[in-house]
Specification:
Strand content: 15-25%
Low-confidence stretches: 1-9, 13-59
Helix content: 25-40%
Distance between the termini: 37 Å
Shape: globular
Number of strands: 16
Mean pLDDT: 88
Radius of gyration: 22 Å
Largest sheet: 11 strands, mixed
Structural class: alpha/beta
Number of helices: 14
């Protein structure tokens, strides 16, 4: 993606820049901002608390720097009502120690695991979660979608993060599986032991996948869950990460996964590069059209599917064929701009200025009638702080720079009060330094291409199933890109399920979509 919009596109992955080659690793890991504490935690009372360390850290591990500030692991017990059933469960909040080939600790990886009490460990599925960025912590999925408690935003003003409150989550995926949330290198509370060499050790597609694979193997082994059905759950860049982690688990840990769940996934960075890639420009059109229809109150439960199909057909048909041909002239050009205007709802002068190739991050595309619309949900807007115009990079995003920042302080409050995990370290929700340092290369190749890896995984593992969820209004990782990738699969296409929901990139911030996503995921986890 474009460096100029690195901050705006953090959750899905950004500039296709190359940093230094990374060294070898057997298992490694990651680190922690946050605003003020939120209201009291929801009523899921812990009835016991005790130190817990699933990796049995040696006395010889004398951690220094920030790694020394992470406390002993905590175990608490709870009950909750999920999918209409009362479930007793145990929460483990702590760290996994990753090591290099010599056995020297390289990182303490923060995780939170929720396991149902009295469940058969070999048959109860385990879902391993991570977010994307690169540089985003897993609090988004943890407190936004799947955990036993969620951060709920005001129904009357969903962009009001300051008034968000933690509350029990009846849609928690605990109804179907045990949950393990793992923060990536340099995010959350996952802390490298040698910060000076963290980038060369962790901040790249392949090294990141190896570190996650080792962390998952450590947790599964130390908790007796190697035989349990296992699923990977990734959001945004976490789509690429899920594919690469599944491959690393198989090749490096001899650990095959049963399924991959991707929410608003990036599947190939070039397919999101709307500045340079014609397919990427094509994929964003259906999301703009669906957002326009929603803003005009023209979407209903009865017609949404047909609108999705028609928007996709226009984008991959007449629109794409025009883009790949010589630019239209005269009356044909005017007709093309009229058509794009009708499908996107954008002002005609903006479409003409963009020559029909919409750059969704451009301020004049996002700013209309004094409102600034989000790349992450094209139906969500705030008062534009720069209605007179501003450089694209100076225009904030209502979701990424606004209300979703509340997940950071919510995680700190929740961990301290509900999980009994307290540390002076801030929870690093979005680490732009990690994002800027990311290495997208595959050895000497210029760019990792995960789609061939997914094709290989589907062919080698006949059990593997894939669940892809997208919001209609997401301009960062649009649903059309997921559909197109799935349609190209020569093997296992019948094992890939595509699911779309009202909402944007973080579709789960909408209560109805969160419930629908949970219902569909439960069916996927219990086939």
């Amino acid at each position: 993606m474009r460096p100029v919009v690195a901050a705006a596109l953090l959750l899905c992955g950004t500039a296709l820049q190359a940093s230094g080659a990374l060294g070898g690793l057997t298992g490694q890991a990651w680190a922690g901002p946050s605003p003020a504490a939120l209201p009291a935690a929801p009523a899921t009372p812990a009835v016991s608390v005790k130190p817990h360390d699933s990796t049995e850290k040696s006395d010889a591990d004398n951690f220094t720097n920030a790694a020394a500030l992470l406390p002993a692991d905590s175990t608490t017990r709870h009950t909750g009502q999920f999918d209409g059933h009362k479930i007793a469960y145990t929460a483990h909040a702590g760290t996994l120690t990753l090591r290099d080939d010599s056995g020297k600790p390289t990182a303490r990886v923060f995780y939170t695991a929720y396991t149902q009490d009295d469940a058969a460990p070999d048959h109860r599925p385990v879902a391993y979660f991570f977010n994307g960025g690169p540089g985003a912590a897993t609090a988004y999925l943890h407190l936004g979608a799947a955990g036993p408690d969620i951060l709920a935003f005001p129904a009357g003003n969903p962009a009001d993060g300051a008034s968000a409150k933690l509350q029990p989550n009846p849609d928690s995926w605990l109804a179907a599986a045990d949950l393990v949330f793992i923060d990536a290198p340099g995010t959350g509370w996952s802390t490298p032991t040698d910060p000076a060499h963290a980038a060369e050790t962790f901040y790249g597609v392949k090294k990141d996948a190896s570190a996650f694979a080792k962390a998952i193997q450590l947790w599964a082994s130390s908790n007796g869950r190697l035989e349990a059905p296992r699923y990977l759950v990734g959001e945004s860049y976490g789509g690429i990460r899920a594919i690469e982690v599944a491959d690393a688990l198989a090749q490096e840990q001899n650990f095959l996964v049963n399924g991959i769940i991707m929410i608003s996934p990036a599947l190939d960075m070039t397919l999101l590069d709307t500045a340079n890639d014609t397919l990427a420009q094509t994929f964003v059109l259906p999301s703009l059209e669906m957002a326009s229809l929603s803003l005009q109150h023209k979407l209903t439960p009865e017609n949404t599917a047909s609108h999705l199909e028609n928007a996709y057909a226009y984008a991959l048909g007449p629109y794409a064929s025009t883009l790949i041909a010589a630019p239209p002239q005269g009356e044909a050009r005017s007709d093309f701009y009229d058509s794009v205007t009708a499908h996107t709802g954008l002002p005609h002068d903006v479409v003409e200025r963009e020559r029909g190739r919409i750059q969704p991050e451009a301020h004049d595309v996002r700013s209309r009638d004094g409102r600034l619309y989000s790349l992450y949900d094209a139906t969500l807007s705030i008062a534009d702080p720069f209605p007179e115009g501003v450089d694209n990079g100076a225009s904030p995003d209502p979701a990424l720079d606004g209300f979703t920042r509340a997940y950071g302080s919510a995680m700190e409050h929740y961990a301290a009060t509900t999980l009994n995990f307290r540390t002076p370290l801030s929870y690093d929700l979005l680490n732009l330094k990690v994002n800027a340092a990311w290495d997208y290369r595959d050895g000497q190749e210029p760019l990792v291409r995960p789609i061939p890896t997914l094709r290989r995984l589907l062919a080698l593992n006949p059990t593997l199933r894939v669940f892809i969820a997208n919001g209609y209004y997401d301009l960062v990782c649009p649903y059309a890109s997921s559909r197109w990738v799935a349609e190209q699969m020569p093997v296992g296409r019948n094992r890939i399920g595509l699911h779309t929901y009202a909402g944007g990139h973080m579709l789960y911030t909408r209560a109805d979509s969160r419930t629908a996503l949970s219902r569909d995921v439960r069916a996927f986890l219990t086939p």
